[in-house]
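Pilot study result, target chain (482 residues):
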Amino acid sequence: MNEVWKYINNILMEFRGCFSYKSTFQWFIIIIIGFMLRHDHLGVSSVVREFGFNSDMLYENLLHFCHSTAWKLEDIQNKWLEIVQQSDTIFNVFGKPLLIGDGQKKPKEGKYMPAVKKMRQESGNSSKPEYTMGHLFGGLGIAIGNGIKQFCAPLSMTIQDGNGPILEWMKSEFAKDSHVTCLVRQACKAAAKMAKECYLLMDSYFLSVPALTAMTEEAAKAGISLTALITKAKSGYTAYEKPGKYPGRGRPRKKGKEVHLFDLFITKASLFTVAQLELYGKQKTVQYYCVNLLWGRKWYQELRFVLTVMDGVKSIIVSTDLLLHPEQIIQLYCFRFKIEVFFRAFGQCIAGLAYHFWNSHLQKLNPFEPAKAVAEKLAQITDEKIRESIIGTYCAIEGYVMFCCIAIGVIQICALKFYQQFNEFPLRWMRTYTNTVPSEESTQDCLQKSFWGLFDIWPKLAIVKIVSEKLEEHASPLPKTG
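Predicted structure:
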C-alpha cells in the first residue's frame, strides 16, 4: 500500500499553489485525509476524532480554514480538473469524454443556513413528505475507468437555487442563471478547459430551451463546439417537422407539421429496428426508431430523437449531435446512471453533504413561507459586513462539499490504478469479489487500515509529516499500529 499513499501524496501536493499560506495548505491536507479516513460522519468534528486530536483549538482551526479567504473555490476546482486529466483514467466513448450532470437535493433543518429553501420532493416513495427544506446542489462529474469498471468522478458540486442575492454580492458570472443553465454552463466551461468536445449526459429535466441556449452561447464564446447533449424527452413533448419550401411571399416558415413524439410508437411501429446492444453490462434486445425533428418553442433547433423499446419500457432519447448513430446514442445515455451511483457513494462513504455551517445574521427560516421568501429576505440585507459574513458561511458550505468531492475522487482514481494491491490487501477480507476493481467503500476501508502504519514505515512522506506536526502540536498520542 506504500505506492498507493505515495500516489495520494503526489496528488495532494499539486494543490499547494491554490493556497496563499503554507499553514492553510496544511489544514487542507488534514481535512482531505480526514474525510478519506473518518469512520463517523458528523461534520468537521469527525476529522478531529479520526486523528485522535484532543484540542478544541484544532476544531476551531478547521472551522476557520473552511471560512478562510486564503483559498478560492474556482482555483481548487480548476486544479482538480487538471489532476483528473493527468491521471490518465478518463473514460472515452466513441472518442470523446463523458461529462455527467444532475441535481441533488439535500434536506437541511438548519434555520440559519444561507440558501436553504422549500423544495418539492419528487421521489415516488410515499414515506417522504411532498415538500422539504434544504439545499439544491448541481453536481458535475466525468466518467473515469477502464473496460472493467467506470466511476463518475465529481468535478464540482455547488448550490444552484435560493442563492441569487449571494451570487450577486459575490459578482458571480452565474448570478442570473437557473439551476439548469448554471449546470450546463459549468459543463461547457469544463469542456473548454479540457480543450475537448465532450458528450454531456443529463436527464429529461435538462431538455429545455434555456439549456440549449446556454450551450449555444458558450460555444460561441469559445469559438468551437464544446458539448453534445444526450438526454431524454418527457412523454408529453411535441416536436415539428422541417418546413417545406414556401411558394408565396412573406417570412419563411420556421417549423412544419406538429408531431406528438409518443404517438410515433404507434404510427411508426413497422419502421422500428431490432438490435442487440450491451447496456448496463448486459446484452439487451432493443427496438428503436430514429428521426430528426425541430424542437423548442420559438427556438426550433434540430435534434435527433431515438424512440426505444427495451424490456417493454418505452422511452425517447435525444441528442444534439445529428451525426451520431441511434445505437451510439442509446449506449451513451446508459452511462448517465453513473452519477446516481456516485451520489449514493458520496452520501454513504464520504457523507459529503453532512455540513453544519450557519450564520446568526440570517433571519430565522420559516418553513411555512413561500420558497421565494428566502431570496427576498437576503436581498433586503444592505450592511456590507453582514453580507461578507453570510458570503463566508456560503463559501464554507461549498468548500466543504468540494473537499469531499476531491476525497472521493482520489479514492476512485486509486481504485482504478491500484486495484491489484487493494484486492491483495491482507486486512480486507471479502467472501466474493463482484468486480476486479474495488468499490469506493472497499478502497476506503483499505486506506483506513493502512494509513497509520505509514508513521513507522514512511515518516518522511509529506502528508505524514504534516499530520505528525499537528499531532505533536496538540499533544495527542498516535493511535496504536499493527
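One observation from the pilot: The chain has two domains: 2-225+338-469, 230-329. A full batch analysis is planned for the follow-on phase.
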